[in-house]
Write a sequence for this structure.
């Protein structure tokens, strides 16, 4: 879907977003549209363009049954949403560096000498970084994707709910991922809202900004 959006459209999307907990359980977003939403959201920026986000789309009854005991007080979203998007950060995302940068050269988006210089730096530094440093990097990057997912879903006419309350030590293995490699970041419920949701209050720019 190709659309042209002006500033008013984008502001409307941002301000119209609500955190929705109850969805129409009879409504299902097609896999084709979910894939489109994910591809649009995956234009988010990331450190060294390594795109460390990985998404498990939980849409089947079996998948939701597996997820239900792991999400504490968020079972309503699980039971009524079209899908639950489990967002993980890949601790070894640098393994995709050559593919990413080679493709950039092939598409004329990067000169070969820039690719070679950046690959040398990435493949030298990233494998040696402490685990906690990499964990912070992939969580920040995956958080950028999550925000774009919420806005993209809204642009498609759907609503979301970001969920941080879940069993972070169990969720990767429960869905067949290596918990040492894939660190859980966030879960997003997505679907057709069955409630309006609340318009929440935000602190003013003066309260959250410091000028120096």
């Amino acid at each position: 879907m190709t659309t042209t959006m002006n500033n008013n459209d984008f502001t409307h999307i941002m301000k119209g977003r609500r955190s929705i907990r109850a969805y129409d359980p009879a409504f299902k977003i097609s896999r084709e549209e979910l894939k489109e939403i994910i591809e649009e959201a995956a234009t988010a920026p990331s450190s060294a363009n390594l795109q460390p986000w990985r998404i498990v789309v939980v849409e089947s009854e079996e998948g939701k049954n597996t997820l239900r005991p792991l999400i504490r007080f968020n079972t309503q979203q699980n039971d009524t949403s079209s899908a639950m998007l489990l967002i993980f950060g890949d601790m070894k995302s640098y393994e995709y560096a050559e593919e990413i940068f080679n493709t950039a050269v092939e598409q004329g988006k990067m000169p070969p000498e820039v690719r070679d210089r950046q690959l040398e730096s990435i493949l030298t530094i990233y494998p040696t970084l402490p685990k906690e440093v990499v964990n912070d990097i992939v969580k920040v990057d995956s958080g950028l994707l999550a925000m774009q997912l919420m806005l993209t879903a809204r642009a498609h006419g759907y609503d979301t709910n970001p969920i941080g309350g879940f069993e972070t030590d169990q969720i990767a293995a429960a869905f067949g991922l290596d918990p040492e490699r894939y660190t859980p970041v966030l879960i997003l419920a997505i679907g057709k809202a069955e409630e309006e949701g609340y318009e929440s209050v935000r602190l003013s720019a003066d309260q959250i900004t410091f000028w120096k």
Notes: The longest strand covers residues 182-191.
